[in-house]
Design brief:
With 124 residues, the chain is of the alpha/beta class. Helix content is 44%, strand content 19%. The chain has a single domain, classed as Response regulator (Rossmann fold, 3-Layer(aba) Sandwich), CATH 3.40.50.2300. It has a five-stranded parallel sheet with strand order 2-1-3-4-5, sandwiched between helices. Helix 2 runs parallel beside helix 3.
Length: 124
């Protein structure tokens, strides 16, 4: 089963995304801030990370930088998720090491398509 780490501080967003991913057959791990996301990525070795960018403790940009700098986690694809789609945010996320970028509210079919592309043959 494909393992997805969802790093999201908003409980409603986390619950909605988690339930939809589980219905699609994914195993979902949840982290509520960047620090926890980094720790869980190292410990759990998920197949893909959905990373909110506006997080407490360590924001999603810095959390992604740290994940991509670690030999243990740099291969894990990261999709940045943000409600604040300002000019330059996508470029900033990609520079931090994110493999893709999507906006909230989440377009479910578009997000699934991006996930499947990054997972290749390793999707649920």
């Amino acid at each position: 089963m494909t393992k997805i780490l969802l790093v999201e501080d908003n409980e409603m967003n986390r619950d909605m995304l988690s339930r939809r991913l589980i219905r699609k057959g994914y195993e979902v791990l949840e982290a509520i801030d960047g620090r926890q996301g980094i720790e869980m990525a190292e410990r759990e070795q998920p197949d893909l990370i959905l990373m909110d960018l506006s997080l407490p403790e360590i924001d999603g940009w810095e959390a992604t930088r740290r994940i991509k700098q670690s030999d243990a986690t740099r291969r894990i694809p990261v999709i940045a998720l943000t409600a604040h789609a300002m000019s330059g945010d996508k470029e900033r996320a990609l520079q931090a090491g994110c493999d893709d970028f999507d906006t909230k509210p989440v377009d479910w079919n578009r997000l699934l398509s991006k996930m499947q592309e990054l997972l290749g043959g390793n999707s649920s």
